[in-house]
Write a structure and sequence with these properties.
Layout: E1 2-6, H1 11-16, H2 21-30, E2 33-36, E3 40-44, H3 47-62, H4 73-78, E4 82-88, H5 89-96, H6 101-110, E5 113-124, E6 127-135, H7 138-157, H8 193-207, H9 214-261
Antiparallel strand pairs: 1-3, 2-3, 4-6, 5-6
Helix pairs in contact: 2-3, 5-7, 6-7
Length: 267
C-alpha cells in the first residue's frame, strides 16, 4: 500500500533535508519508505508504518519557519506509543540546541520522533513549562526521555548523569519520571606496573625458599672482590720474596767464585 502527501514547492527541500537527513530520520523512525518528488511524497510500508510516517511528515512540515503545531494533543497523549515530558521553559532552548540539532540527534540515536507544543504553556515547580512529546516504541521512548531529562538536569543544576546530584522534582504534568540520582560508577583501582615487577621478584624469592636481601648480595660480591685482591697481593709479595731470595743466592755464589779465583795471600 502507498499513501501520498501533497507538497508545495518550498516543502520539498525542507522535508528532504540537507543530504537527505530529514527523510532518512523519518524513515528510520517510522520504518516506512519515503519517495519525495516535486509535488508529492509517496509513503510505502505497513499500515502502522505509514500512519507513523504520515503523522511525522505533517508535524515536520508545520514546524517549518518556526510554525506552531496544530494537532489534537489530547488524542496524542492517549496513544500507547506516546510519552510526554514537561520541560522548564528556561531549558527548552538548551534541549533543542542550535536549530534543533540536539533534539534531532536524540531522534536519530533512539529512533523516535520528538516535538514541542509551543503554544500551550503549563505551570510547573520550575516555572512555566513546554510539553515535549516523544513517539516511538516503549524502550526507545524510555532511553530518549532519560537523555532529555539529563540535559535538563544539567542545565538546572550543573550536574549530569553518573555524578552526585541533589534530586529536585521536575515540572508537574506529563509522564511521571524518576529524578533520583544515579549511582556513581566505582573508580577503577590504580594500576602500577612497578607493583607487578615487585610481585614477580617476591614470587621468584618464594620459589627459592626465601627472600634474598639485595644488600647481602652486594656484600658477598664485595667480599669476593676483596678476597681476590688479597690473593693477588699475596701472590705478588711471594713473587717478590722469591726473587729477592734468588738474587741473594746468586750474589753469594759470585762472592764464593771470586774468592776461589783470587791468589792466596800466603802463596
Amino acid at each position: 500500500m502507498v499513501d501520498r502527501v501533497t507538497l508545495q514547492e518550498q516543502d520539498v527541500p525542507y522535508l528532504v533535508g540537507r543530504n537527505g537527513a530529514t527523510r532518512i530520520r523519518l524513515e528510520n523512525f517510522s520504518g516506512a519508505r519515503l519517495n519525495i518528488d516535486r509535488d508529492c511524497c509517496e509513503v510505502e510500508g505497513t499500515q502502522e508504518e505509514r500512519e507513523l510516517a504520515m503523522l511525522a511528515i505533517s508535524i515536520t512540515l508545520q514546524q517549518r519557519d518556526g510554525g506552531s503545531v496544530e494537532a489534537d494533543f489530547r488524542k496524542l497523549e492517549d496513544r500507547e506509543d506516546v510519552s510526554t515530558f514537561d520541560v522548564p521553559q528556561e531549558t527548552v532552548g538548551f534541549l533543542l540546541g542550535a536549530k534543533g540539532a540536539t533534539l534531532r540527534q536524540m531522534e536519530n540515536k533512539h529512533r523516535v520522533f520528538m516535538f514541542f507544543d509551543n503554544d500551550q504553556k503549563r505551570q510547573g515547580k520550575h516555572g512555566p513549562c513546554k510539553r515535549l512529546y516523544v513517539i516511538g516504541t516503549r524502550s526507545s521512548r524510555e532511553s530518549a526521555l532519560d537523555e532529555a531529562e539529563d540535559v535538563v538536569r544539567y542545565k538546572l543544576t550543573g550536574e549530569s548523569r553518573g555524578r552526585p546530584f541533589d534530586p529536585k522534582p521536575r515540572a508537574s504534568g506529563g509522564r511521571d519520571r524518576d529524578w533520583s540520582p544515579r549511582e556513581r560508577a566505582p573508580l577503577p583501582e590504580r594500576y602500577d606496573r612497578r607493583d607487578d615487577r615487585r610481585d614477580d621478584r617476591r614470587r621468584d624469592d618464594d620459589r627459592r625458599g626465601g627472600r634474598d636481601d639485595y644488600r647481602d648480595r652486594d656484600d658477598r660480591r664485595y667480599d669476593d672482590r676483596r678476597r681476590d685482591y688479597d690473593r693477588r697481593d699475596y701472590d705478588d709479595r711471594r713473587g717478590y720474596d722469591d726473587a729477592t731470595t734468588t738474587n741473594g743466592i746468586a750474589h753469594a755464589l759470585v762472592d764464593v767464585k771470586c774468592a776461589l779465583l783470587s791468589p792466596s795471600t800466603g802463596q
